[in-house]
Amino acid sequence: MGCGCEKREGRNCVCEIIEEIIEAQNDITENCCTTSCEQSINDLLGEEDPGNGLDTVPVILYCEGNCKPFQGFGALPHQHADSVGKMKGSFIFRPKKMLDDCCAVIELVRSSDDHECKFDDPCDQKTKNLEATGICITVDLKCFCHVTCLPAVSLFNN
Q1: Which of 1, 17, 58, 78 could form a disulfide with 85 if both were Cys (CB 3.0 to 4.6 A apart)?
Q2: What's the CA gap between 38 and 40, in Å, rounded?
Q3: For 15-34, how does the pLDDT look when each residue is reduced to its tens digit (9 = 90+)?
Q4: Are the C-beta atoms of residues 43 and 125 closer than 8 Å to each other?
């Protein structure tokens, strides 16, 4: 059974939140909302603690239809031309760039302490020492019915 999301033409709430996070991360502009995603954005912007060094609002996306957390996969670069690097998976992402028609580029975010490729549940994934992986995937945000924003973190100012 689905989570009650209807197929819509154009934009949806997940698309709008992801776009807002990207704008905040790129522009560090003011935002006055109080929802959990808005709080993470406010923390990123430093409204309570200016100069806090936060640069990322990590998110977990939930698939349309089954409303289960989405796990993305990608490969790290490899030195040999005939192979790809080690595969990595993550439930946690850093929104990077909005594309046309509610699509976005998102980056896999993982703990430096995680050595598993795949996790069964987002709770299995470590959240201490989160790092940007450099592994980016492109997603259609209209395929998601829910977004969970995690507390803002610093991935690039460690």
Answers
A1: 78
A2: 5
A3: 888 888 888 877 664 545 44
A4: no
